[in-house]
Specification:
The complex is a heterodimer of chains A (547) and B (311). Chain A is α+β, with helices and mostly antiparallel strands. Chain A has 3 domains: 163 residues, Periplasmic binding protein-like II (D-Maltodextrin-Binding Protein, domain 2, 3-Layer(aba) Sandwich), CATH 3.40.190.10; 139 residues, Dipeptide-binding Protein, Domain 1 (Dipeptide-binding Protein, domain 1, Alpha-Beta Complex); 225 residues, Dipeptide-binding Protein, Domain 3 (Dipeptide-binding Protein, domain 3, Roll). Chain A contains 16 helices and 21 strands. In chain A, the strands form 6 sheets. In chain A, strands 11, 12, 13, 14, 15, 16 and 17 form a 7-stranded mixed β-sheet that branches. The longest helix of chain A is centred in the first third of the chain and has 19 residues. Chain B is mainly alpha-helical. Chain B has a single domain, classed as MetI-like fold (Orthogonal Bundle). Chain B is 75% helix and 0% strand. Chain B is built from 14 helices and no strands. In chain B, 37% of the residues are buried. The chains are: A alpha+beta (547), B mainly alpha (311). Chains A and B meet through helix 1, helix 6 and helix 13 of A and helix 2, helix 4, helix 6 and helix 12 of B.
C-alpha cells in the first residue's frame, strides 16, 4: 500500500510543478487595452534592421521619427517641430522640439538622429541594414554604405549629408531634390536610436535593454508568444495617448485569429500583420458591416512576363494575354476582398501632383480588355514569331493564400477567350523567388508594395539596372525618363515623366500583366476608435482609445 | 552492462552525426537563402549579410565549422531572429511544448489505462462497448479535427475557455484533450486486450480461488503485467506528443517549438533548422533508451544483457 501512496504523491507533485509553471492569468479584457495579432515573432526591434510589417507595426508604437503622419496621411511634426527647405530642395534643416525625451528621461537630440542614420549606413555594421537604401537620398550615403567593388567609396562618415549642428538642429543634404523626402523621415528606418546601443549589440533583442522615444515603451517580450507596450511617461505628447496597454500576440493560424477576435480576445484582426480567411470575407462583411473594412492599399497584384524568352518576348502575344482577362469577375468571384481591377502599375492610393496619381493619369488609358482584339493580337504575334499555334507555357505561382485560385480563374479565361492551354505550377516561396529572380519562368505571379508615397516607388523598379527588375525588361527610353524624373524638382514635370514611363511599360510593351490593386482587409471592434490605416496599409494605433 | 551502455551511446552519437550531415547538405540543396525576399535586398548589402553569417564560404568549410561548434554545444545564432541564439529559442519555446506534452501523457495514461481496465472488467457488457466506441473514435479522428471542434464548441459557442493562448491553467484544458485523444484510445485498447489475456492466466485463477477481492486482483496482480505493452508504447508516445504537436499548437496559438521548426524551413534559417532537428533527434533517442530501462524495471525477465543478445 505504501508504494501506491508514494506513486500518487509523485504524480501530484509532477502535476503541481507543471501547472505552477503555467504562468499568471493576465486578463486581456481590461479597459483601454488594444489587443492585436502579429502572426509571428518580429525578427528584430532595431529600426536599422527592421524590414517587415510585423517589426514595423511594433516599432510604430515604440519610436517617433522627425515627422509623423496624421489620420489623412499628411506629414505633421514629430520630434522635429519645424523645418526649412532650401530653394534647390536639396538641403533640409530640421528644428527639433526641446521636450522630446527617451523612455529613460534623456533628451532626444539631433545627435541621436545623426548617430542612427550613420549607423544604418555604416559599411562595417553587422548584420548590415537591409533597408539602408531608404537613406540613399542623403548625400554620399550610398557611396559610404557600399564598400566592396565601389571605386567611389567614401570612408569618412563626416562626408555623409546628415549633421547635427547643435543639440536641436539637424541639417540634411540630399543627392537630388526629393519632393517626398519629408514622408521618408517618418519611415521606420529613419527613427532615432539611443546612444546606449553602442555598448550592447544585442540591445534590441530583449525588452529590458530597449530605450525608445515613442508614445509607448516595451515592458514584456516573450519571444514567439507576446509583446506588451505601455505608455511612455516621458513622451512629450503623453496627454494624447489614451490606451493603457497594447498587447500583441503571435498566432499564426488565421482561423484561430478570427475566433479570438469574435470572442473578444483580440480588438483587431486582419491586415497588415494578420489575415482574415478569404472564404470568410463575404460572410463577415454582411454580418459585421460596422467592423469590417477593406481600404485600398498601395500595392499591386500582377503577373510577370519573361520578356527574354519565347513566346513572351513578343509584345503582341503579351498584349493578347493581358486583354483577355475579365478583372472585374476576378475580384468579385475569386478574391472577394473589395480589390480594384488594375489596368496600370501605380495603385490609386499613391499621391500625384494635386490629386491621386491615378486620378490624374487614369489607368484605363493603358489597357482596355477586349476579347476580339486579344484574339487578333495573338494571331498577329504568333505570325511574327513564325508559329502556327501557341506553344504550351507555364504560369508559376507561389504557395499561399489564394494565388492558386486566382491562377486557375485566369487560365480558365485564357482557355475560353484565346483558346490556349496554360499549365499552372505552384512552388514553395523561396524556391519561387529564386526562379523568378533568375528569369526561370514563362509567366510568374508578383506583387509590389510602396516604400514611400510617390509613383517612383513603382516606376523605378523596371529600369534596366533595377535590382527588382525580374522580367528582363530593358528599354533605353524608359531609363531616360526615370533619370529625368529623379533629377527634377518640378512635381508637374515629374508626374508627366513617370506617366510616360508607365505608358511604355504597360501600354506599349505590356511587360507586366496588371491584375488588381490590393486592399487591407481587416476588422476593428466597434468600441475601438482612432485606429488609422495609412496609404500603405500599415496601421497607427498610438492615438487609439477604447470606449 | 557497461559494454552495453557504451555501445548504446556510440550508436546514438553515430546516428546524430549521420543525421546532422544529411540535414546540413539537404537543407543547403534547397534553392533560396535566408535573405531572399519579395523586395530583393541590393546585391551589395546581401553580400555583406552572407559574409557576416559565413554563407559566402565553400559548403565544406561551412559544414566543418558547424560540426566544430556543435561539439562545443554551440548551436549558433538564428539568421532570422536577430541576436537570438538557437539554444535560447529552443529553451523558450520547448518549455510550452514540454509542459503540454507531460500533462497530456499523464492524462492519456491515467484515462487510457482506466478505460482499458473498466472495459476488461466488464468484458462484453455495456461499459466495454462504450469504452471501445470511444477508443475507435479517438484513433480514427485526427487530433486537429478534435482541436478545431473543441475550440469551436467550448471556446466560441459556450465561451467556457479562451479560444487560444496559454495564460492560465484553464487554457491547458482544450489542447490537452486534443493531444491526448489518440493516445487515450490507443492505450485503452492495449490495456483492455492484455488485461483480458492476463485475467485468464493461471495465477489470477489461483488468486480468485483463494477468494481475494476482485479489486485487489485487478490492481495488485493483473495490472503489473497488463501495463507492460503500455510502457513500451510510452517511449514513442512521449517523443510523439512532445515533438509532433505542431498542428494542435497552431490551432490553439501555443508558442511551442513546432511553429519555429516549420518557420525555420520556410525562412531558410539554417542554424535554427539544424538546431531543432538535432534537438528532436536527441529527444527521440533518449525516449527510446528510457523505454528500454523502464521495460527492464517493470519486467525483470527482460534483462538488458539478454536484449543485447537478441539484437
Amino acid at each position: 500500500m505504501r508504494k501506491s501512496w508514494f506513486l500518487t504523491l509523485a504524480m501530484l507533485l509532477v502535476i503541481g510543478t507543471v501547472l505552477a509553471g503555467c504562468g499568471s492569468n493576465n486578463s486581456s479584457s481590461g479597459n483601454q487595452v488594444f489587443n492585436m495579432n502579429l502572426s509571428s515573432e518580429p525578427p528584430t526591434l532595431d529600426p536599422a534592421l527592421a524590414q517587415d510589417s510585423v517589426s514595423f507595426t511594433v516599432l510604430t508604437g515604440l519610436y517617433e521619427g522627425l515627422t509623423r503622419k496624421d489620420s489623412t496621411g499628411k506629414v505633421i511634426p514629430g520630434v522635429a517641430e519645424t523645418w526649412d527647405i532650401s530653394d534647390d530642395q536639396k538641403t533640409y534643416t530640421f528644428h527639433l522640439r526641446k521636450d522630446a525625451k527617451w523612455s529613460n528621461g534623456d533628451p532626444v537630440t539631433a545627435h541621436d538622429f545623426e548617430y542612427a542614420w550613420k549607423r544604418v549606413l555604416d559599411p562595417n555594421q553587422n548584420p548590415a541594414s537591409p533597408y539602408a537604401y531608404q537613406l540613399y537620398y542623403v548625400k554620399n550615403a550610398q557611396n559610404y554604405n557600399i564598400a566592396a567593388d565601389n571605386p567611389n567609396h567614401i570612408t569618412d562618415p563626416e562626408q555623409v549629408g546628415v549633421k547635427a549642428t547643435d543639440d536641436y538642429t539637424l541639417v540634411v543634404q540630399l543627392e537630388n531634390p526629393t519632393p517626398y523626402f519629408l514622408s521618408i523621415t517618418s519611415f521606420w528606418t529613419t527613427y532615432p536610436v539611443h546612444s546606449s546601443a553602442k555598448d550592447n549589440a544585442a540591445w534590441a533583442a530583449e525588452a529590458n535593454t530597449m530605450i525608445t522615444n515613442g508614445p509607448f515603451k516595451i515592458t514584456t517580450w516573450k519571444h514567439g508568444n507576446e509583446i506588451d507596450l505601455v505608455p511612455n511617461e516621458n513622451y512629450y505628447a503623453k496627454d494624447e495617448i489614451k490606451l493603457s496597454k497594447v498587447h500583441f500576440v503571435m498566432v499564426s493560424n488565421s482561423s484561430t485569429e478570427l475566433q479570438m477576435y469574435k470572442t473578444g480576445q483580440l480588438s483587431y484582426s486582419g491586415a497588415p500583420t494578420g489575415e482574415i480567411p478569404t472564404e470568410q470575407i463575404a460572410t463577415l462583411k454582411g454580418s459585421n458591416p460596422d467592423e469590417f473594412n477593406n481600404q485600398a492599399t498601395a500595392s499591386t497584384y500582377y503577373y510577370n512576363f519573361n520578356t527574354t524568352k519565347a513566346p513572351f518576348d513578343n509584345a503582341n502575344i503579351r498584349k493578347a494575354f493581358a486583354m483577355a482577362i475579365d478583372r472585374t469577375q476576378l475580384v468579385e468571384k475569386v478574391t472577394k476582398g473589395g480589390q480594384q481591377p488594375a489596368f496600370g502599375f501605380v495603385p490609386p492610393s499613391i499621391t500625384g501632383e494635386n490629386k491621386s496619381f491615378r486620378e490624374e493619369y487614369p489607368d484605363i488609358d493603358l489597357l482596355k480588355p477586349d476579347v476580339a482584339q486579344a484574339k487578333a493580337l495573338l494571331e498577329q504575334g504568333l505570325k511574327e514569331k513564325g508559329l502556327s499555334s501557341m506553344p504550351t507555357v507555364t504560369l508559376t505561382v507561389n504557395e499561399g493564400t489564394g494565388h492558386k485560385q486566382v491562377a486557375e480563374a485566369i487560365v480558365d479565361m485564357w482557355r475560353k477567350n484565346l483558346g490556349v492551354e496554360v499549365k499552372i505550377e505552384t512552388q514553395e516561396w523561396k524556391v519561387f523567388l529564386k526562379n523568378r529572380q533568375s528569369l526561370n519562368y514563362d509567366i510568374a505571379r508578383a506583387g509590389w508594395s510602396a516604400d514611400y508615397n510617390d509613383p517612383m516607388t513603382f516606376i523605378d523598379m523596371f529600369t534596366s539596372t533595377g535590382g527588382n527588375n525580374d522580367i528582363g525588361f530593358k528599354n533605353a527610353q524608359y531609363d531616360e525618363l526615370v533619370k529625368k524624373a529623379y533629377a527634377s524638382s518640378d512635381q508637374h514635370e515629374r508626374m508627366q515623366l513617370m506617366s510616360q514611363a508607365e505608358n511604355i511599360l504597360v501600354k506599349d510593351n505590356m511587360a507586366i500583366l496588371p491584375l488588381y490593386y490590393y486592399t487591407g482587409v481587416h476588422m476593428v471592434k466597434k468600441n475601438v476608435k482612432g485606429i488609422v490605416m495609412d496609404y500603405q496599409g500599415m496601421i497607427d494605433y498610438t492615438r487609439a482609445s477604447v470606449e | 552492462m557497461v559494454r552495453y551502455w557504451i555501445g548504446k551511446l556510440f550508436s546514438v552519437l553515430v546516428s546524430l552525426f549521420i543525421l546532422a550531415t544529411a540535414t546540413f547538405f539537404l537543407m543547403k540543396a534547397i534553392p533560396g537563402d535566408p535573405f531572399t525576399a519579395e523586395k530583393a535586398v541590393p546585391p551589395e548589402i546581401k553580400a555583406k549579410l552572407m559574409s557576416f553569417y559565413g554563407l559566402d564560404k565553400p559548403l565544406w568549410d561551412q559544414y566543418v565549422t558547424y560540426l566544430k561548434n556543435l561539439v562545443h554545444f554551440d548551436l549558433g545564432m538564428s539568421m532570422k531572429s536577430q541576436y537570438q541564439t538557437v539554444s535560447s529559442i529552443i529553451a523558450d519555446s520547448f518549455g510550452y511544448s514540454l509542459r503540454l506534452g507531460i500533462l497530456s501523457i499523464i492524462v492519456s495514461v491515467v484515462v487510457g489505462v482506466g478505460l482499458g481496465i473498466l472495459a476488461a472488467m466488464y468484458h462484453r457488457k455495456l461499459l466495454d462497448s462504450a469504452a471501445m466506441i470511444l477508443a475507435v473514435l479517438g484513433v480514427s479522428v485526427p487530433n486537429f479535427v478534435v482541436a478545431s471542434l473543441l475550440q469551436y464548441v467550448f471556446g466560441v459557442k459556450l465561451n467556457w475557455f479562451h479560444v487560444a493562448g496559454l495564460n492560465g491553467p484553464l487554457d491547458y484544458v482544450l489542447p490537452i484533450i486534443a493531444l491526448a485523444s489518440l493516445p487515450i484510445a490507443y492505450i485503452a485498447r492495449l490495456t483492455r486486450s492484455t488485461m483480458l489475456e492476463v485475467l485468464s492466466a493461471e495465477y489470477i485463477k489461483t488468486a480468485k480461488a483463494k477468494g481475494i477481492r476482485k479489486r485487489v486482483i485487478i490492481f495488485k496482480h493483473a495490472l503489473r503485467n497488463g501495463i507492460l505493452p503500455v510502457v513500451t508504447y510510452l517511449g514513442p508516445m512521449t517523443a510523439n506528443v512532445v515533438t509532433g504537436s505542431v498542428v494542435v499548437e497552431q490551432i490553439f496559438g501555443i508558442p511551442g517549438l513546432g511553429q519555429y521548426f516549420v518557420g525555420s524551413v520556410s525562412n531558410r534559417d539554417y542554424t535554427l533548422i539544424m538546431g531543432i532537428t538535432l534537438f528532436y533527434a536527441v529527444i527521440l533517442m533518449v525516449a527510446r533508451l528510457l523505454t528500454d530501462i523502464v521495460y527492464g524495471l517493470v519486467d525483470p525477465r527482460i534483462g538488458l544483457r539478454s536484449r543485447k543478445g537478441a539484437a
